[in-house]
Design goal:
Helix content: under 10%
Radius of gyration: 13 Å
Order of helices and strands: EEEEEEEEEEE
Structural class: mainly beta
Largest sheet: 7 strands, mixed
Oligomer: single chain
């Protein structure tokens, strides 16, 4: 069974940066596509960024140029570096193992103006 654990959320001022990390249990990380999603209050969950097992990357429009996804196969971790944060980036951020459809518990990111 795949388990995901996110960390790195918090409160930051607009223009600041945060780095989210998601560690995956099990032996499937290296062959799995991983994604970061977010859900703001009253809104649908949206895909922020995705990275394939071979390193191919896709970004949502809101993330392009500001967020950067990476994976560390030695730690079974996928990271999301978020720069130039805006109040509209405030949301719960979730990690997902796309290959198995497993979600993490989410981590809150709050950006103050």
């Amino acid at each position: 069974q795949v388990q995901l654990a996110e960390s790195g959320g918090g409160l930051v001022q607009a223009g600041g940066s945060l780095r989210l990390s998601c560690v995956t249990s099990g032996n499937i990380f290296r062959v799995s596509e991983m994604g970061w999603y977010r859900q703001a209050p009253g809104k649908q969950r949206e895909l922020v960024a995705r990275i394939g097992s071979s390193g191919d990357i896709w970004y949502g429009e809101s993330a392009k140029g500001r967020f950067f996804i990476s994976r560390d196969n030695t730690r079974n971790a996928v990271n999301l570096q978020m720069n130039s944060l805006k109040p509209e980036d405030t949301a719960v951020y979730y990690c997902k193992c796309e290959s198995f459809g497993t979600w993490g518990q989410g981590t809150q990111v709050t950006v103050s103006s």
